[in-house]
Design goal:
The protein is of the alpha/beta class and about 260 residues long. Helices cover about 45% and strands about 15% of the residues. α7 links the parallel β4 and β5.
Length: about 260
């Protein structure tokens, strides 16, 4: 069986190729990622704390988190982190401040930060668009990644940043860079399972790649579901359902005795 990597194992792979990472939401996806050989996953707390999660995903390095806007105080964040690690998580995603990252890292919590297009902070960078397209913005990104490293984070997700910028940043820092739309010069390539499987019916990010069309299959199954229900309705109306094999029959002698009792 494959061994689940530690933070030290992942850090030792810096600059030695790229790992794979998925955002998952279900036990079925986790089991598939395990069997396929995915390295790192991001999962909601409801999944990582599921009693069967580690049964189906024993070797997936698993990150979970909570939006800093609803996390509460730093002490609340620390308490949450401890609960998740005790439940089976391997790292905590923190979208909060560098001070919060340092607070958690000082308590030996494996913390992952976020730079570039950070959805919870997109208003500061002009909305949902690429970050770091000018020399000044790119230099600021490098400074931010270095600050995360100094604060004690062992990795940062770098999202929708020009490939050249992400590559140069990765070369200049010891912290791991988890690329979501930031190119192959990082340490991990990160996609959402729903995009890979073609389940995303909304906006498809530029960096997403569809490998299967589950949406079409879901649509086919839904049509089959409706047709089955309609056939059931028709059978009830015509008397075709239930048939003798669907019900329990009474012994004729017992039935006769029953009728005598109630007559």
């Amino acid at each position: 069986m494959r061994k689940k990597p530690t933070v030290a194992d992942l850090r030792a792979k810096k600059g030695k190729g790229q790992l794979t990472m998925l955002r998952l939401f279900t036990l079925e996806e986790a089991a598939a990622a395990e069997e396929a050989g995915i390295d790192v996953v991001s999962v909601p707390q409801e999944l990582v704390t599921h009693p069967r999660y580690r049964e189906v995903a024993p070797s997936l390095f698993s990150m979970t988190g909570v939006d800093h806007r609803s996390a509460g105080t730093r002490e609340d964040y620390l308490r949450f982190s401890g609960q998740m690690l005790n439940a089976g998580a391997d790292a905590i995603y923190c979208s909060g401040s560098l001070a919060t990252v340092k607070f958690l890292a000082d308590e030996h919590i494996p913390v992952v930060g976020h730079v570039g297009l950070v959805p919870s902070r997109n208003t500061w960078t002009g909305g949902f668009k690429a970050v770091g397209k000018t020399a000044e913005a790119a230099a600021a990104l490098l400074t931010e990644v270095q600050a995360y490293e100094a604060a004690g984070a062992f990795a940062v997700e770098i999202e929708v940043v020009p490939v050249e910028v992400a590559t140069e940043i990765s070369r200049r820092v010891g912290i791991l860079l988890w690329s979501m739309g930031a190119g192959p010069g990082c340490d991990v390539q990160y996609l959402f399972s729903e995009d890979i499987l073609g389940e995303n019916r909304g906006h498809m990010p530029r960096h997403a790649k569809v490998y299967r069309n589950f949406a079409a299959e879901f649509d086919r199954l839904q049509r089959e579901r409706v047709d089955a229900y309609r056939e059931f309705i028709a059978d009830v109306a015509s008397g075709a359902y239930p048939e003798p094999q669907h019900v329990v029959a009474m012994n004729p002698d017992e039935m006769a005795a029953f009728l005598r009792k109630i007559s």
